[in-house]
From TrEMBL:
It comes from Cupriavidus numazuensis. The gene is fadN_2. Residues 11-192 form the 3-hydroxyacyl-CoA dehydrogenase NAD binding domain. Pathway: Lipid metabolism; fatty acid beta-oxidation. It is an enzyme of class 1 (oxidoreductase). This is 3-hydroxyacyl-CoA dehydrogenase. GO terms for molecular function: (3S)-3-hydroxyacyl-CoA dehydrogenase (NAD+) activity. Keywords: Fatty acid metabolism, Lipid degradation, Lipid metabolism, NAD, Oxidoreductase.
Length: 773
């Protein structure tokens, strides 16, 4: 089911079973690659203990997309099993950041590896030239740096560094594997300290930390400035430091101080020389791993209380209210925040100006163009905007003018970008020499956003659009909040068959949202209808959804869904009605309607019952139980592989590891399917009937009596039993899918009248959390 690469990777080995090494091994297993994970021997009586513990940590921490994928990882130790790397195609080194230790290991690897096997280091601090010093040319030609970010499964960036002595095709092979098989965005970097993301990111962390202290801001105050206004995660600077560990300052920041040129601006912000940081290290206040860092959580009068370290006293105190006029008036506008007159405004300006100036100063040294730097920061640090995108947003003329007023130098790249109207002028981007160039993408990467600069939708409204994506393929895009399905979305969905007939041969369903394929049907519309007791309107909304999706399933053209992220409720039902699915590997699909007090009503129950009936060879009782269990669990999948185990994906469906390739792979599948497509036949489902319903209902009653299920959950479960067993019919009766859809509608109308249903929906609408009433 996984997308394949052009480059064969039959087996891998990872040496070093720390968080990074074990995480890389787990993610290779996620891609279906057998992996050997090795580390040192620390206990002669349990020689593989280090690697075994690392494997267990990955299982507990979500490193694997499915628990059974851990079977692809074989653990061992360097003393007994190094010879076993001899058949590995790729050997990843992730040991301690000591060049001599690494070089000694490389010599041992070179003795046993097969000719042409790739060897790479996950280092983030040591230049490649230093790593390969005194090693044979044959080894150097197969060697590269592959810098993953932690955790490897989740973080999309991979920085790739190879020497000029690398063999032809080495970087292309590694990039292909990491892109297509591991789902990474690969940025080829120069062999400079920290490469791209950490060169910029660690400088930003130094500036944001030391300027907060100099400005007299508290930890929580600095994080309020250094988060949403900058498009940075809510951890801000000090929450991030606690996550990565203050203990890394001597190692990582120390490496920069040893390797950067004397004139590098980072030397003005030397964290390794800061007395407060030193005291934190002496006290073991190193962050989350130690239970205390810039933040800690304590029990105060029996209540868990979050506290912050005080930069003046060095002790912990409670959080202060954030009360800066500049923050409240800016409302997220970074330029307006910087134009304020209070401490928060001054802090924001100091960090912004230093960040943009530093990126402009070192840009020509570390990257070919500004896009590579911005991409590295977005993906490596989870920023919404890279430094050059941030600069364009606040306005380069304003920024450079303020620098000049303060008597500060304007870096050459920044000055040229100002003259050209931005770092991204007129749909282009600047290379780091200041010349506008056209953006480029690898083959097979694309998004709907590419069309929107030069084309208009074929059809659409403010909720959804239909796009011509070429080769006779039409794309259906929802663009509501979290891509929820509402009445206007249904207007466009209902128009699909006629639009396809006007000159298209297949349909792809997908969008560019960063988080959600579709979070489900619009709960607000349900709430409005139930409050007004508009049962006719509620039934009409459900019927329209059922009919629109059924028309896709049985239409004369193939439909390919490209789900990713959240595909919940109605979004999952859209997926279930596609003829084919190309799913992103990180898919959180499911039918959680029970959490808002109803059942799936756009054919979700029907489609699952159809699938499980087929899977269990028409064993109607088993199919009914499996469908009931899947929907009552109300738990979304943790990955596409998990979704397949839940019946939400089929054998003919594919899994795409790289989100950037999802739409194009779905389009490719739609083109192929159009030449072989036979419309789905109307289903005839043998149902379990009244007798089976009785035993299922008894089990629900027992769960309520045992306190394992609330009465309203039981009410929903009973409604589901009626649907999955076919209502008032006998065992083995053949029902059409239309018959089951009627039962879905009846269940929603009955549950809509239950008082707890409205309470659940209102609570979810207002808080985003389920109400267990």
């Amino acid at each position: 089911m996984l997308t394949k690469t052009r480059t064969k990777l039959l087996k891998a080995a990872v040496i070093g079973a720390g968080n990074m090494g074990a995480g890389i091994a787990a993610h290779l297993a996620n891609a279906g690659v057998p992996v050997l994970l090795l580390d040192i021997v620390t206990d002669p009586s349990a020689r593989n203990a280090v690697a075994e513990r690392a494997l267990q940590r990955q299982l507990a921490g979500g490193g694997f997309m499915r628990q059974e994928l851990a079977d692809l990882v074989t653990v061992g130790n360097l003393e007994d099993h190094l010879k076993n790397i001899g058949d590995a195609d790729w050997i990843v080194e992730a040991v301690v950041e000591d060049p001599e230790v690494k070089r000694d290991l490389y010599r041992r690897i070179d003795e046993v590896r097969k000719p042409g096997s790739v060897v790479s280091s996950n280092t983030s601090t040591i230049p490649l030239a230093q790593l390969t010093e005194s090693l044979p040319a044959s080894f150097v030609s197969d060697f590269a740096i592959t810098h993953f970010f932690n955790p490897p499964r989740a973080m999309k960036l991979m920085e790739l560094v190879a020497s000029s002595d690398a063999r032809e095709g080495l970087t292309a092979d590694i990039a292909d594997i990491c892109d297509r098989l591991l789902g990474k965005t690969v940025i080829e970097c120069r062999d400079t300290p920290g490469f791209i993301a950490n060169r910029i990111g660690n400088f930003w962390m130094s500036v944001a930390t030391l300027e907060a202290m100099r400005c007299g801001l508290g930890v929580e105050e600095a994080d309020a400035v250094m988060s949403a206004p900058f498009g940075i995660p809510r951890t801000g600077i000090f929450g991030l430091f606690d996550y990565v560990g203050v203990n890394l300052v001597p190692l990582v920041w120390g490496s920069f101080m040893r390797t950067l040129d004397a004139h590098d601006a980072h030397r003005r912000y030397d964290l390794t020389a800061d007395a407060f940081i030193h005291r934190m290290l002496e006290r073991g206040q190193t962050g989350r791993i130690a239970g205390q860092g810039f933040y800690r959580t304590q029990l105060v009068d029996g209540v868990r209380s979050r506290q912050v370290i005080d930069f003046v006293t060095g002790s912990y105190r409670g959080l202060r209210n954030i009360d800066f006029v500049s923050l409240s008036e800016a409302k997220g506008d970074l330029r307006k925040l910087c134009e304020g007159s209070d401490t928060a405004a001054n802090y924001a300006w100091r960090v912004l100006s230093e960040l943009v100036c530093y990126a402009s100063e070192v840009g020509p040294e570390i990257a070919a163009d500004v896009g590579a730097i911005d991409t590295a920061m977005r993906l490596g640090y989870n920023w919404r905007y890279g430094p050059f995108e941030l600069a364009d947003r606040v306005g380069l003329s304003w920024l450079t003018k303020r620098l000049l007023v303060e008597g500060r130098a304007v870096p050459r790249l920044l000055a040229m970008a100002t003259d050209r109207g931005g770092f991204y002028p007129s749909g282009k981007l600047l290379n780091t020499k200041g010349t506008p160039i056209a953006p480029t993408r690898a083959e097979g990467i694309g998004a709907l956003a590419d069309l929107k600069t030069s084309a208009s939708p074929v059809y659409g409204n403010k909720a959804a659009s239909l796009w011509d994506i070429g080769d006779g393929v039409l794309a259906f895009e929802v663009h509501t909040k979290m891509n929820a399905g509402n009445l206007e979305m249904l207007d466009v969905l209902e128009a699909v068959p006629s639009v396809v007939k006007s000159g298209f041969r297949s349909l792809v369903i997908g969008n560019d949202h960063p988080r959600a394929f579709s979070a489900g049907a619009d709960i607000g519309h349900f709430v409005e209808l139930i409050r007004r007791r508009n049962w006719a309107g509620l039934e009409a909304f459900v019927v329209r959804g059922q009919n629109a999706l059924r028309a896709l399933l049985h239409g004369p053209f193939p439909v390919v869904a490209a789900p990713f992220g959240l595909a919940l409720g109605g979004g999952c039902e859209i997926q279930l009605h596609a003829n084919y699915v190309v799913a992103h590997a990180e898919l959180n699909a499911g039918l959680p309607e029970l959490r808002v007090g109803i059942v799936p009503g756009w054919g979700g129950c029907t489609r699952l019952l159809e699938r499980f009936t087929e899977e269990y060879a028409a064993d109607s009782i088993r199919a009914a139980k499996r469908t009931l269990e899947a929907i009552v669990a109300a738990v979304p999948s943790t990955s596409a592989m998990d979704a397949a185990s839940m019946g939400l994906l089929c054998k003919q469906d594919a899994i795409c590891m790289n989100r950037d390739r999802l739409m194009m792979e779905a389009k490719e599948r739609a083109v192929v399917a159009s030449g072989e497509y036979i419309p789905a036949a109307n289903a005839r489902i043998p149902v379990a009937g009244r007798q089976a319903a009785g035993s299922l209902l008894s089990a629900i009653d027992e769960a309520v009596e045992a306190g394992q299920q609330s009465e309203h959950d039981a009410r929903v479960a009973r409604a589901l039993v009626r649907i999955v067993t076919g209502g008032d019919v006998t065992h083995g009766t053949l029902l059409s899918d239309l018959d089951i859809l009627v039962l879905e509608r009846e269940a929603i109308l009955a549950l809509g009248e239950a008082p707890n249903t409205l309470a659940r929906m209102e609570h979810m609408l207002n808080t985003g959390k389920p109400l267990l009433n």
